[in-house]
Fold this protein.
Amino acid sequence: MIRPAVVLGYLGRIILIIGIAMLSCLTWSVPYQEPETIPILLAAAITIGCGLLLYLSFSKSSPINFREGFLLVSLAWIVASVFGSLPYMFSGYLPSFFDAFFETVSGFTTTGASVVSDVESWPKGLLYWRCLTQWLGGMGIIALFVAVINTLGSRAKQLFKAEVPGPVSDILSPRIRENARILWITYLVLSILCATAYYIFGMDAFDAICHTFTTLSTGGFSTKNSSIGFFTNPWLQWSVILFMFLGGVNFALHFFCFKKRNPLVYLKNAEFRLYSLIIIVASLLVFVNLQDKWAVAGIEGTLRAAIFQIVSLITTTGFATTDFNIWPPLSLALLLTMMFIGGCSGSTAGSIKPGRYLIIGNRTLIELKKMVHPKAVFPLRYGGMMVREDLLINVLQFFFLYMAFALLGTLIMASLGLDFLSAFSATATSLGNCGPGLGLVGPMSNFSFLPDAGKFTLSILMLVGRLEIYPILVLFLPSFWHE
């Protein structure tokens, strides 16, 4: 049975965390004496006030049960997006709720799709909040909640696994709260290294912090209209490639590498090897396909552009250094394919994940072998462990549902007047949390021209993709709400 008081009590704490994070925007808006300081302060006050009201009203809530856990995870992301929209609406920069909600959902889900045409005209306080939403959403709102709250009881594991992307997750500690803390500490350390590198290679402190937030979270928001293309230093762009790549790697591997002082930890992971191989092969194919640009941009410049966009889209970051919308058909096809692959399980990246493709591929290979040796038994293994039948079914169902949502989203967007390429890529980039798409929603465009129905549809797809479908769909089961 679902107890509303229990869910509201924990939801209040999550809202409180969002409100406190919102206050950090004042560190930029106050020194620069921006008139948006008051709207940001008002938005933070309302958010903190609502969070406190729920927390104090239901502070004696008992540990959540199984159903309440799923409901809390889904509601947390929706409610965070609603309250996160307040600074945009109160400041007047995005007065429309649908625009503000779209931008906030895109931030928290680390999608990077935007309705803002001129971000350089925005005040620093709002730009900081816009990027901070991606950093908070990258590792996960619930993961942060689990890390700082110690009264969740035995259902903390359920909350944590419902949000962490991927078919499987490495166990860092027997205690789920300790798992969440380790991941967030690893995330913070990499963020410090990233910001330092960006500052050394030419970004000012504000841009370095904001782009760090959106790189490690594989989010893709930028403080510049031309994204990373604004920064022409090759070393800076190579450092962005490196940290996007690291953001797309299972963060448990980063922790184990640091703990064991052994980089070979990465190579022992099958998903990491496939992830790296896809990037290498796809980048080389794009590089060769762009050979007519060798004389203009140079060999290194063309190779950098090819690797940058492949890494940007497979990690679902969405940064751009050029208008890849005008690249040859093969390159566009490869970029579109990257949107359906994604980064590793346990990373901040979205989409389907190489780990799921490994499980499906290995199962397909077993079925082929059975045709030749019908009496033989071939165990399905992944990561050195036997894959249970329920996990295999989960992966296959996820793949089917993902494609079903992609088809449904494309049909809805096409019904709103978009051409097929724009409708399909807008759906793919939202569901995969990738950022820019192709066609009318390419890297040099934005989503502001869409009607409210289109923005709301894509916002839902972003949430469905970030939570990997199941926590949202389960809420629509009648049996979920029955005792």
